[in-house]
From TrEMBL:
Protein name according to UniProt: Uncharacterized protein
């Protein structure tokens, strides 16, 4: 005698709510199993699996997969193979993806065209962007309202990948939020800065290392 799961006994609209809640901000690391990766990298089995609920049965897979595409964040950590990894994502799935996360120093912006429904891109610059304020001023003062533009310009000026991504997203008919994170070296500090590229607005900054110098 076959039994129906409690989930499938719920009305379709209730299941939709459950799927949306379960997969909100769920990270999915995109990888190609044909490429060799080091131990602990995103190509390890634990990082390759889709959420377990999708494997429960055929019906939940068909119902939940589009929700996963819309709610989850696709994470591309292997920036040298971003174009290839983007092609690994099935077209039907990619067409629904709204959120992706990129990191690296070489990211071809044209590959973003595979994701027509994009609403949010998070980009992490791996290299250091050097910005040197006057010795008597710490980074916190430098991020005052009068100098935020200088900090952002410093990042944009040293990240060709970020500029390429920005240009590619600007050509889209729909607005896409682009959030970037970079490390800035000042005279006194090494700081992680997160900012909205389109709005040219610093969202947060965190001091990673503080240097004390003797006079």
């Amino acid at each position: 005698m076959e039994t129906t799961s409690m989930l499938l006994q719920c009305p379709p609209e209730v299941r939709e709510i459950i799927y949306n809640y379960a997969f909100e901000d769920h990270p999915i690391h995109v990888c190609d199993v044909r490429l060799k990766r080091s131990i602990g990298g995103p190509n390890r089995p634990a990082n390759r699996r889709l959420p377990g609920l999708l494997h429960a049965n055929k019906q939940t897979y068909q119902e939940a997969l589009p929700v996963v595409a819309r709610q989850a964040t696709l994470v591309f950590s292997d920036y040298l193979n971003f174009a290839q990894l983007a092609s690994v994502v099935p077209k039907s799935f990619a067409s629904l993806v709204r959120n992706i996360s990129l990191q690296g120093d070489v990211v071809p912006g044209h590959s973003l065209g595979r994701f027509p429904s994009l609403e949010h891109v998070n980009y992490k610059q791996l290299g250091n962007c050097f910005f040197v304020p006057a010795k008597e001023k710490g980074f916190a003062k430098r991020v005052s309202a009068a100098s935020k533009q200088e900090v952002i310009d410093s990042v944009l000026g040293r990240s060709s990948s970020l500029v390429l991504i920005q240009d590619a997203l600007r050509k889209r008919p729909n607005h896409v939020t682009l959030i970037a994170r970079a490390t800035i070296m000042s005279y006194h500090e090494q700081t992680s800065v997160t900012f909205d590229v389109n709005q040219l607005r610093i969202l947060s900054h965190e001091v990673l290392v503080h240097y004390d110098y003797d006079d």
